[in-house]
Amino acid sequence: MSQGLDNLKHIVVLMMENRSFDHMLGGLTQKNAKINGLQGNESNPDGNGDPVQVSPTADYRGQLNHDPDHHFPGVDVQIYGGAAFAPGRTTTMDGFVKSYGTQSPNVDDSHAIMKYFAPQNIPVLTTLATEYAVFNGWFSSIPGPTICNRAFAHYGTSFGNVDMNLFLVSAADKAKIPTIYQRLAAGGHSAKLYYYDQPSSTMEIVNLITDQSFFGVFSDFVADCKSGNLPDYSFVEPNYSDHPAPDGTRLLATDQHPDHHVLAGDNFIGKVYDCIRINPKLWQSTVLLIVYDEHGGLYDHVAPPDCQKDGFKAPESATGVPGLTFEFDRLGIRVPAVLVSPYIARGTVVPGKGEANGRIFEHASIPATVSKHFLGKDEGTVREQNAETFLDLLGDNLRPDNDCVFFPKAMKG
What we know:
The chain is α/β, with parallel strands linked by helices. 29% of the residues lie in helices and 11% in strands.
């Protein structure tokens, strides 16, 4: 084992919302050619058949005046360009503008889906991506929306769901497939899901509500970092809605889901990082994964790869794609993922699909990694057992404190 692994006591996951890799990190290719982002000439045809080229002109808010389609049928169009289902279809990744064009009669509106952020405009995320490790090949677990993708982070499966229904897990499935929190507790380890606050609630309370010990709010996370009493495993959720704060001020949503303010979310990422960073003992014993649940309908140029089937099937009535029964045998669209630790060398780029020594990660990699580290075994669902884990990125060399970035403005936000 490495010194970084020997000292690792805490794993923290911050899962943001609905942004693709190219949309958030694609511009970093110009700074580091190893990052598989955008060259600047990528395009998709619009409704008139005219090519719409990528552009580093994404706005924080107001540009995506319709929520881009990220449900299963829409994602199918984005990946396959609208081609009807047939075995062996070619992934073209040229249906993003076409998909977004169905939501507005104005063709020009559909062009916004190809815009991406210049790195300097989301400074916290892009700084962490270049200061620590960025994954070229982290994909959402299914080509669909939030709820089912987040389920893979908690359970290693979505139990056959591909939509936004707040599904209840059956008693039989709960007994057979417990959450990572329950597995850790059974093994004598602590785990907690920190949702932002009561008005924002959580995406996972429906199935975990029977044991309130697994829950906390973000202010608890801040306090636990300050005291050093962070659980072995923490899953942090952002604020999902604009709503009043207890002091009468208005809190902005920080999840970055279109059309919430992206800079507010960038600031929140910095705050989570700084909560860990300012406690020296915690900083040297913690790894932080920042990842997004799914792409939110926004353009990415990398075709999703196939994956191990997990034993569930979603019928045509659920997929909404004529003729398609989904067997959970391919991943969804690529999302930003950044791993942070003082034991990670600056500028680490984890190669992805199609690259030399390429590795493919998905949300089942989260419980797989947590289980392997704390419980000392590969267990869980089929997808977990076949998922890549990420703690091998921690090395032997502890970076000096003055060599690790700090975002004091984020702490004030």
